[in-house]
């Protein structure tokens, strides 16, 4: 059954060298492999295949995100590494770029070197994801 399988994420890139530096050095993901088709990294046991393409248009929405325990600290850490957090008017975001959803979840968005939108979020215990 599919429900018993391991989940794997997919992200496109046109520059796998830049992508590898970003996902390993900036985000701290573990390198798994690199072949002519994809760079593979892992996050808490979930593999992410960064597919090598000649061209693509990044989606305007979040394609992958991470739940974190302390979003303020994560934003500070990533900002210190050069990550710029996205602004989405008319959402009311903090000076750091964090939006608080109606459920209480706090979310911040950023892009990888290819323009793929990623997010980090901190969720309120017992409340469904935003």
From TrEMBL:
Residues 3-123 form the VOC domain. It comes from the Bacteria. It comes from Paraburkholderia megapolitana. Pfam families: Glyoxalase (PF00903). Transmembrane segments: none annotated. This is VOC domain-containing protein. SUPFAM superfamilies: Glyoxalase/Bleomycin resistance protein/Dihydroxybiphenyl dioxygenase. InterPro entries: Glyas_Bleomycin-R_OHBP_Dase (IPR029068), Glyas_Fos-R_dOase_dom (IPR004360), VOC_core (IPR037523).
């Amino acid at each position: 059954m599919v429900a018993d399988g391991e989940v794997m994420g997919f992200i496109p890139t046109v520059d796998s060298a830049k992508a590898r530096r970003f996902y390993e050095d900036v985000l701290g993901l573990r390198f798994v492999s690199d072949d002519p088709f994809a760079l593979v990294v892992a996050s808490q046991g979930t593999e992410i295949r960064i597919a090598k393409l000649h061209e693509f248009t990044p989606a305007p929405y979040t394609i992958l995100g991470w739940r974190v325990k302390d979003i303020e600290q994560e934003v500070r850490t990533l900002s210190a590494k050069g990550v710029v957090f996205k602004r989405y008017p008319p959402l009311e975001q903090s000076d750091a770029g964090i939006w608080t959803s109606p459920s209480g979840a706090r979310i911040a968005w950023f892009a990888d070197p290819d323009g793929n939108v990623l997010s980090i979020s901190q969720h309120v215990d017992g409340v469904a994801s935003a």
